[in-house]
C-alpha cells in the first residue's frame, strides 16, 4: 500500500523571515516549515562534525563518554514504541564505530541503535552547543522547567521520573537507517529539530487526518507507515494524504502541534531537538491531558467502589502516562498567568513607553493571558475538578519567591528579544510602589485552588488596567 503524497514542506531562509511573519504563517496556522541559515555560529556544528561532514564520534567519546543515555533498538517493537536500552555514550559510540568499520548496518546482532532523548543541556550546562533561534524562544515548557519541577509535589513521584522530565531539550544520534516510528509529540507540543550533520526524511500527516492512521476503535495507531498496513484494522489509512520533505545538514524543521510524523535518517546524523508549547498551542496540551485522563480512568473503573482515593489514582496514572496530571498543569497555568500579568503591569508603568498598550510586547502578554483564561474556563467544566481543590497557590507568597522572580525575569527577557523591546526586569518591591493608585494588595492576597478562581482573578486583574478579560 503506497503513500499518497500531497505536497512538500515549505523551505524558507530563516535570516530573511521576521518573528512576526513566522508567527502569522506557521505558528498560528500550525503549519510545518524548514528554516535555513540559523546554525552558522553553533559550536555543535564545528565540534560535532568531522572534516568529511560525518559525526565526530571520537569527540563525543572523549568529552561526553561517561553519560548514561537511552538508546532505541530500531528493529524491535516494544508496546507502541521501539525497545529502549540503557548504556553509556562511550558504549554507544563503540558499537557505532564497529558497525561503520565493518560496513554492517547494525551491531553484532544486526540491530540498528539510535540514541534518543539525551538531556544534553541539563547535563552539560557550561558547554554551549547552540543558541535557540528567536522563533522558538517563547517556550513555556522549558522556561518553566528551568526554575520549577514539573511535579509540584515531587515526593509523590519517583526520582527517575523527575530526571526524565527535567527538560525537553534533547540530542539525537543515529547511523544511516535508524528511524522513529509514526507518532505525535509529547503533550501535543510543538517541536523543532536541527540537523547538525546528516540528512533526514520526514513524512507528515495533518491533525485533521490523524483518525485515518488509527484503528476503527481509535485505540491504536499505525506503527510503521511502510509496513504492510492491515486494511481491515486501519480502514482509513489509504485515504491519508501526506506531506514529505528531506531535511539537509544545518537545516531546522518546525513540527506543529498534533501532526503525526515518521522520520528516517538517510545518513549518519546528529540532531538537536526541543519540545515546547506556548499560548498558541496550550489548548492542545489540555485537550490531550483530558483525553488521557478519561482513558486512564476507564482502565480502572472496575475498582472505583473499593478504592479509597479513586480520583487520586486516576491522576497518578495520568502523570505516569502523559508526563503531568491536572494539578501539575493547573499550577503551571497559575504561575504563567502571574508572570504575564506582572510583566503586563510592569510594562504599563514604564514611563519610556507612552504607547505601551499598542506595543507588540503588550499584545503578546495580553494574548497569553486571554488564552490562559480560555483554557482555564475549559478546565473548570471538567467534573474531576468539582468539589475538589487540587492545588492551593498563595499568590502573594508566589510572587515574592526567588524562583518566581527569576522565572518572571527569564520570561521578560525572552519576550523582549522576540518583540524587539527594551528589557524589563521584575522587582516585587518596585512593582507595588509603582501602582499606588491601583489596589493590588487585596488582589494578590488571595489564594487560588480551582480553575474558576483563576478565571475570576484574571478578570479582576485586567479590569484594573481598563481591559475587559
TrEMBL record:
Its cofactor is Fe(2+). Residues 121-293 form the JmjC domain. SUPFAM superfamilies: Clavaminate synthase-like. Pfam families: Cupin_8 (PF13621). The keyword 4Fe-4S does not apply. Keywords: Iron, Metal-binding, Oxidoreductase. PROSITE patterns: JMJC. GO terms for biological process: regulation of gene expression. SMART domains: JmjC. InterPro entries: Cupin_8, JmjC_dom, JMJD6_ArgDemeth/LysHydrox. It comes from the Eukaryota. GO terms for molecular function: 2-oxoglutarate-dependent dioxygenase activity; catalytic activity, acting on a protein; metal ion binding. Belongs to the JARID1 histone demethylase family. This is JmjC domain-containing protein.
Amino acid at each position: 500500500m503506497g503513500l499518497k503524497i500531497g505536497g512538500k514542506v515549505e523551505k524558507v531562509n530563516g535570516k530573511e523571515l521576521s518573528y512576526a511573519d513566522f508567527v502569522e504563517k506557521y505558528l498560528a496556522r500550525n503549519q510545518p516549515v524548514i528554516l535555513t541559515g540559523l546554525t552558522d555560529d553553533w559550536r555543535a556544528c564545528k565540534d560535532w562534525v568531522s572534516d568529511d561532514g560525518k559525526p565526530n564520534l571520537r569527540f563525543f567519546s572523549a568529552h561526553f563518554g561517561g553519560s548514561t543515555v537511552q538508546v532505541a533498538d530500531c528493529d524491535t517493537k516494544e508496546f507502541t514504541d521501539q525497545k529502549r536500552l540503557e548504556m553509556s555514550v562511550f558504549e554507544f559510540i563503540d558499537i557505532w564505530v564497529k558497525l561503520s568499520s565493518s560496513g554492517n548496518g547494525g551491531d553484532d546482532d544486526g540491530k540498528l541503535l539510535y540514541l534518543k532523548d539525551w538531556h544534553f543541556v541539563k547535563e552539560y550546562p557550561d558547554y554551549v552547543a547552540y543558541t535557540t533561534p528567536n522563533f522558538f524562544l517563547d517556550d513555556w515548557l522549558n522556561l518553566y522547567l528551568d526554575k520549577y519541577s514539573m511535579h509540584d509535589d515531587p515526593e509523590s513521584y519517583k526520582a527517575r521520573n523527575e530526571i526524565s522530565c527535567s527538560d525537553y531539550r534533547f540530542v539525537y544520534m543515529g547511523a544511516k537507517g535508524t528511524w522513529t516510528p509514526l507518532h505525535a509529540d509529547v503533550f501535543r507540543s510543538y517541536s523543532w529539530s536541527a540537523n547538525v550533520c546528516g540528512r533526514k526524511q520526514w513524512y507528515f500527516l495533518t491533525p485533521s487526518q490523524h483518525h485515518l492512521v488509527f484503528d476503527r476503535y481509535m485505540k491504536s495507531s499505525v506503527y510503521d507507515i511502510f509496513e504492510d498496513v492491515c486494511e481491515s484494522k486501519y480502514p482509513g489509512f489509504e485515504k491519508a494524504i501526506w506531506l514529505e520533505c528531506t531535511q539537509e545538514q544545518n537545516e531546522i524543521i518546525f513540527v506543529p502541534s498534533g501532526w503525526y510524523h515518521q522520520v528516517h535518517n538517510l545518513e549518519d546524523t546528529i540532531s538537536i531537538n526541543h519540545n515546547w508549547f506556548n499560548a498558541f498551542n496550550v489548548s492542545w496540551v489540555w485537550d490531550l491531558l483530558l483525553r488521557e485522563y478519561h482513558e486512564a480512568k476507564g482502565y480502572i473503573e472496575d475498582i472505583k467502589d473499593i478504592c479509597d482515593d479513586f480520583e487520586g489514582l486516576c491522576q497518578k496514572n495520568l502523570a505516569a502516562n502523559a508526563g503531568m496530571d491536572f494539578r501539575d498543569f493547573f499550577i503551571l497555568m497559575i504561575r504563567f498567568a502571574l508572570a504575564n500579568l506582572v510583566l503586563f503591569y510592569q510594562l504599563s508603568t514604564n514611563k519610556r513607553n507612552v504607547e505601551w498598550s499598542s506595543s507588540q510586547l503588550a499584545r503578546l502578554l495580553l494574548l497569553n493571558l486571554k488564552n490562559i483564561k480560555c483554557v482555564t474556563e475549559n478546565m473548570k467544566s471538567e467534573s474531576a475538578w468539582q468539589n475538589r481543590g487540587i492545588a492551593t497557590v498563595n499568590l502573594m507568597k508566589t510572587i515574592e519567591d526567588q524562583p518566581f522572580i527569576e522565572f518572571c525575569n527569564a520570561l521578560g527577557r525572552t519576550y523582549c528579544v522576540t518583540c524587539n523591546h527594551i528589557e524589563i526586569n521584575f522587582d516585587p518591591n518596585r512593582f507595588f510602589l509603582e501602582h499606588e493608585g491601583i489596589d493590588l494588595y487585596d488582589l494578590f492576597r488571595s489564594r487560588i485552588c480551582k480553575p474558576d478562581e483563576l478565571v475570576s482573578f484574571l478578570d479582576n486583574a485586567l479590569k484594573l488596567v481598563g481591559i475587559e478579560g
